[in-house]
Structure formats: C-alpha cells, structure tokens
Amino acid sequence: MALHSIAIDAVKQVKLDQWSGEVQWPGRSAVQKILIFQYQGQLRAIDRFCPHQGYDLVGSEVAEGGIVKCQWHGLPFSLLDPKGSYLVERNGDDFVLHYDEMP
Q1: Are 22 and 97 in contact (CB under 8 A)?
Q2: Which of 48, 50, 87, 88 could form a disulfide with 55, with the two C-beta atoms 3.0–4.6 Å apart?
C-alpha cells in the first residue's frame, strides 16, 4: 500500500519533546487533533484525546516501549503501533504526517 502525506496545522509545542496539532483528512469536514511525540529519534503522532472518555493526553509521558497512558484511566497507546500511530516528519516549522490508511 502506498504511503500518503498530509500537512499538520496549528502546531504548538507543549513540552520539550511534545507538540499538538490538527489534521484535516481528505474528504472529511472534521479536524482531528493529534499529539506528536519525539521517541527514539522519530516523531510519532497519536490522537490527542483518549477514546474512552475524551481525556486530553497533552502532557502525558512516554513510558518504556513507546507507551503513552491516559492519565485518567490508564488506557495505553503505543507510539509504535501502525494501526494507532503515525510517522511524522519535521522540516523547520512544518510538520507532515505520513499514513497508509485514514482512521
């Protein structure tokens, strides 16, 4: 399957190794808010909000194995899971998300 790219808008640094941003998926009207983490020399993005009850994951730490846990209920998210995270590339102030399939 081909890798696609999409610009990340409204990027703001929230911690030394963490940024928030927004993605406008092709063909969709809603904007998805994401979090970008620097982990093992890569930038990886996940959804900014926990799907369980919508807790904002900003400020969450990355644990061993690239796991980010919801600070509310402890639901884990893997920065390395190709189904739930995305590779991000940075060029200066521009961030680009790479994906195989839209969520």
Answers
A1: no
A2: 50
DSSP-derived secondary structure letter, 16: T
Residues 100, 68: Cα–Cα separation, whole Å: 22
| Three-state secondary-structure class, residue 101 | coil
Q: How far apart are CA 12 and CA 63, in angstroms?
A: 22
Alpha carbons 101 and 37: distance in angstroms, whole number: 20
For 52-98, write each residue's pLDDT tens digit. 889 999 999 999 999 999 999 999 999 999 888 999 999 999 999 99
Are 78 and 85 in contact by the 8 Å Cβ rule? The answer is yes
